[in-house]
Design a protein that fits this description.
Layout: E1 2-6, E2 9-12, E3 17-24, E4 32-38, E5 45-51, E6 57-59, E7 67-72, E8 77-82, E9 91-98, E10 103-104, E11 107-108, E12 119-120, E13 124-129
Parallel strand pairs: 2-13
Antiparallel strand pairs: 1-3, 3-8, 4-5, 4-9, 5-6, 7-8, 9-12, 9-13, 10-11
């Protein structure tokens, strides 16, 4: 499995960016895809996730209402649309894939845990200036 992120950059506070994660090497219909971020001196944290099969989405409270995760089945690509960016959103953003997250009709479990993801991209830097 290969995950290649793109779309990071420098933006002013209040601006927008869209990150892309191009996935290859598998059929991803049974996968959950996540975005995580890590700021300097801080631990990696969950940002958003999407279940590829039905598009159900999950968000960290800190980004809910500002970020939107989506996927394009034809392009095998997951997106993270980030609006109303804040300086505290500055971090390296990583795309991740998991084939071991259990999902039921009630939702997916442990989708916010980085330990459940077994494939990671190289990361893309997002810097938000104040």
């Amino acid at each position: 499995v290969q995950l290649v992120e793109s779309g990071g950059g420098l933006v002013q506070a209040g601006g927008s960016l869209r990150l892309s994660c191009a996935a290859s090497g598998r059929t991803f219909s049974r996968y959950s895809m996540g975005w995580f971020r890590q700021a300097p001196g801080k631990e990696r944290e969950f940002v958003a996730a999407i279940r590829w099969s039905d598009g159900s989405t999950y968000y960290a409270d800190s980004v809910k209402g500002r970020f939107t995760i989506s996927r394009d089945n034809a392009k095998n690509t997951v997106y993270l649309q980030m609006n109303t960016l804040k300086p505290e959103d500055t971090a390296v953003y990583y795309c991740a894939a998991s084939d071991s997250i259990y999902c039921s009709v009630y939702g997916c479990y442990d989708v916010r845990s980085g330990l459940k993801y077994n494939y990671w991209g190289q990361g893309t830097q997002v810097t938000v200036s104040s």
